[in-house]
């Protein structure tokens, strides 16, 4: 088989950034995905519906001409988000989810939530207005080992939250462990999860063996091989509550190749290609459509896409770097060949 045609996929976790970088980032996703959940961790964070609406317009303006790529917007939750703001978000029609960042957990999370119990009114409003709560699931206590932060969050924060809010629809973002896979599998049907390509393809050796590799550093951090295997199992199992979310998180080269490098891996230029690679290695290419194109839409209560995307088994060279505003960015697999490519008719790419 030299080509693979799937229902057009959606990306249920994406960072597009803002300003001069936005146009250099959005076209990669627009060439691949029908829709994407757009993360609100800008500086300053998008804590009001008005700010989200203005960002939505900037994304539309930065989309390639003729693109129908649809941004599904999110609101940034803080300790002080009033229920009325959730109501405005729902009424906007543009906002599909509210994002919970534990304060200090990741990039631009300083305005995030310090104690989830402070948000009970907002969380009740999210459930009432049929929005989804997306969660970066890591605790931030300095004494908690970085490799345990997800597991502690699930036990100490997420389990009680799901108990307290019995109607709330939750997406646990970017799963990284076998433990998290088990938590989602045994959780209620209103709990879904995204899985990134880097967590399907790499483990912590790829970050730390033979030299430290800043372009493989993201949060939650890459874990053990047995965790990667559990994530592959979950993604390729046909279980409808695991779905695609790239967490493509661009940072300029100088911010990654730095004594204190930023967390985030830029996968947008090869995102669906990486998933195809991971699914093929697992002998599960026939399961890619469900994971990439059906289950996320079903979970969010949105219609599935009706058009298709075709990949060709044709090696493609990833450039060493790509334009990013007035600077450069290094994508995953920079300088390497990747086994899958978009077919020419669906690839309006310019590097
Ligand atoms: N995943 C990351 O490592 N970084 C993301 C934030 C996030 O999704 O946690 C970013 O915005 O850079
Ligand atoms: Zn995150
Ligand atoms: Zn993210």
TrEMBL record:
**How does the annotation summarize its subunit structure?**
Homodimer.
Q: Which residues bind Zn(2+) 2?
A: 99, 136, 174
Q: Per the entry, which co-factors are needed?
A: Zn(2+)
Q: Show the catalytic activity.
A: (S)-dihydroorotate + H2O = N-carbamoyl-L-aspartate + H(+)
EC number(s) per entry:
3.5.2.3
Q: What PROSITE patterns does this protein map onto?
A: DIHYDROOROTASE_1, DIHYDROOROTASE_2
- Can you give the residue ranges of the Amidohydrolase-related domain? 11-309
The UniProt GO MF terms for this protein read: dihydroorotase activity; zinc ion binding
Q: What is this protein called?
A: Dihydroorotase
Biological pathway:
Pyrimidine metabolism; UMP biosynthesis via de novo pathway; (S)-dihydroorotate from bicarbonate: step 3/3
Kindly identify the residues recorded as the active site.
247
GO CC, sorted alphabetically, is: cytosol
Q: Per its UniProt entry, what is the enzyme's top EC class, as one word? A: hydrolase
InterPro entries, per database record = Amidohydro-rel, DHOdimr, Dihydroorotase_CS, Metal_Hydrolase
Which residues are recorded as binding substrate?
A: 15-17, 41, 136, 219, 251, 263
Q: What are the UniProt keywords, alphabetically?
A: Hydrolase, Metal-binding, Pyrimidine biosynthesis, Zinc
Gene Ontology biological process: 'de novo' pyrimidine nucleobase biosynthetic process; 'de novo' UMP biosynthetic process
Which residues does the annotation say bind Zn(2+) 1?
A: 13, 15, 99, 247
């Amino acid at each position: 088989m030299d080509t693979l045609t799937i229902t057009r996929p959606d990306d249920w976790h994406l960072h597009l950034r803002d300003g001069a970088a936005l146009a250099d980032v959005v076209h990669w996703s627009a060439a691949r995905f029908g829709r994407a959940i757009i993360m609100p961790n800008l500086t300053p964070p998008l804590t009001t519906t008005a700010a989200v609406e203005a960002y939505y317009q900037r994304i539309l303006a930065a989309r390639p001409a003729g693109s129908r790529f649809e941004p599904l917007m999110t609101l940034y939750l803080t300790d002080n988000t009033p229920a009325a703001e959730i109501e405005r978000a729902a009424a906007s029609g543009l906002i599909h989810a509210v994002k919970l960042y534990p304060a200090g957990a990741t990039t631009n999370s300083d305005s995030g939530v310090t104690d989830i119990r402070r948000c009970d009114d907002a969380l009740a409003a999210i459930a009432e207005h049929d929005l989804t709560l997306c969660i970066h699931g890591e605790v931030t206590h300095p004494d908690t080992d970085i490799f345990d932060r997800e597991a502690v969050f699930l036990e100490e924060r997420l389990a009680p939250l799901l108990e307290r809010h019995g109607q709330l629809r939750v997406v646990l973002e970017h799963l990284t462990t076998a433990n998290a896979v088990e938590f989602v599998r045994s959780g209620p049907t209103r709990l879904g999860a995204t899985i990134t390509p880097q967590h399907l393809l790499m483990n912590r050796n790829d970050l730390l063996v033979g030299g430290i590799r800043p372009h493989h550093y993201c949060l939650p951090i890459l874990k053990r091989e047995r965790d990667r295997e559990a994530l592959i199992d979950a993604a390729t199992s046909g279980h409808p509550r695991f779905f695609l979310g790239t967490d493509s998180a661009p940072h300029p080269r100088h911010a990654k190749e730095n004594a204190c490098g930023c967390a985030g891996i830029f996968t947008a230029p090869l995102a669906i290609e990486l998933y195809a690679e991971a699914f093929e290695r697992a002998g599960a290419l026939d399961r890619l459509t469900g994971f990439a194109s059906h289950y996320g839409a079903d979970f969010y209560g949105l219609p599935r896409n009706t058009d298709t995307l075709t990949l060709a088994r044709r090696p493609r060279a990833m450039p060493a770097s790509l334009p990013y505003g007035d600077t450069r960015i290094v994508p995953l697999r920079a300088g390497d060949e990747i086994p899958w490519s978009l077919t020419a008719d669906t690839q309006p790419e310019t590097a």
